[in-house]
Amino acid sequence: MADSAEQKKAEKKAEKKVEKRVEKKAERKSDHRSEKRPRLRFTRPPVWWPLPACALLGLAAGGAYGVLKAPEYAATSYVVAVPDDTTEPATALGFAQAYARIATSSSTLAYAQPRAGIGAQKLRTQVRAETSPESPMIAITGTSTSPAEAADIANAVADALSLSSNQAAKNTGVQLLLFNQAVAPSDPASPSAAISGAVGMCAGGLLGGLWLLARPGRRKEEEKEEQEGGRPVVGEYPSLPAQGEHAETKEKESVR
User: Which residues are CB-contacts of 40 (< 8 A; sequence separation ≥ 6)?
Assistant: First the structure.
């Protein structure tokens, strides 16, 4: 009977050893499999990500604007102020400056409206007059989506300005003459899609840089980076004593 009891104990011990070995092998296999499995890590995007993102958005917006917007043409006609025999050249220069200011007035545009073929309000937005302080010449530029219409606008306003000013030539001593008529342009004056895209990219990059400089969480991120790098962060408040030191000071005061 004793021998059978000892045999049972030995068999139980052997079974336990076998079970432990099996468990260890299973644990080793599970560890090995877990090491082989790739660990998925979600990395945060870099801090400077708004800069290229805004630049790309600006590039797309500028390119789309240049493609979708209709091209605009500009044509220019020139009118010169000529003094008579009794008038000095400096007087003609002063009158050229004055006539350039009234080139887009309501009275001048009323004369030019029938030849231009558009309303006075729209005509005012499509014409401009420029002059130089060194020469008595006035440049009148018409703009439109059609090259022929741009030339018609410039020539109509130039003729109207010369007619209205020549009515007072006897009193002023200065006469306006048409120096050069406007011709329908072949190339548009508005920027192309490539130039619009480049301008949009620069504007987007500028906005992205300004956002990086003025973002609200910048100071907190810098403090976190300093703490992670082991740099001491200087605070505005003094450091508090430890708990043990506070207890020791209390005991000393009680003994006193």
Answer: none
Burial of 81 (0-12, 13-18, 19+ CB in 10 A): buried
What's the average model confidence in pLDDT over 86-93? 84
Residue 77 CA to residue 13 CA, distance in Å, equals 113
Q: Round to whole Å and give the CA distance between 159 and 184.
A: 17
User: Residue 210: which of 202, 222, 198 has the closest Cα?
Assistant: 202
Measured CA to CA, the distance from residue 12 to residue 8 in angstroms comes to: 6
Which residue range forms the structural domain that includes residue 156? 71-180
Provide the β-strand partners of residue 38: none
**32 inside domain:** no
On whether both 81 and 175 belong to a single domain, the answer is: yes
Answer yes or no: is 79 within a domain.
Answer: yes
Residue 51: per-residue pLDDT: 82
pLDDT at 237 over 50: no
In the 8-state DSSP scheme, what is residue 73?
Answer: E
Q: What is the pTM for the complete model shown?
A: 0.57
Q: Is the pLDDT of residue 252 over 50?
A: no
- CATH no. for residue 152? 3.30.70.1130
Residues 99 and 168 placed together within one structural domain of the fold? yes
**Strand, helix or coil for residue 75:** strand
Residue 129, φ and ψ in degrees, nearest 5: -125, 135
Please tell me whether residues 121 and 84 are part of one structural domain.
yes
* Number of Cβ atoms within 10 Å of the Cβ of 108: 25
Do 164 and 107 share a structural domain?
yes
